[in-house]
Amino acid sequence: MPEEQAIDPVAIRRGDTQYGQGYTESLFTRLNKVDPHFSALMQKFVHGGLYDREVIPHKVRELCAIAALCTSGRFSQLRSHFNAARSYGAKDEEILEVLIQMSTYAGVPTVLDAIKVHQEWVDQGHTMSGFGTR
């Protein structure tokens, strides 16, 4: 069994800011059980690294993430990034518009699937589901 790993406080700070209190600890507790080394890499590189860069506003970064997830068909990750975008000031209409704009790049069927995830997220009161939820 893998050794229990401490979770990087920088990763927790950024993740909780983006996704809500407890999200990051839950995510990395699960990843620590699967593969502590991968968990540590993710904490340093993504949550404690890329997500802390200040070159573009966090809202823009999250809208970019939503576009990328939509075009790559990674719908299970959309809700957490919808929440992160909202935490940085994006309105539901802006998030929806990013999805609609992706019809040019990902095709209408892909965008319809992403819009369905968005509508469910709105209808469920902006709740997340997926790997990182408690």
Automatic annotation (TrEMBL):
Pfam families hit by this protein: CMD
One GO molecular-function entry: peroxiredoxin activity
Domain named Carboxymuconolactone decarboxylase-like: residues: 36-117
Domain of life: Bacteria
Protein's UniProt name: Carboxymuconolactone decarboxylase family protein
Species annotation: Tectimicrobiota bacterium
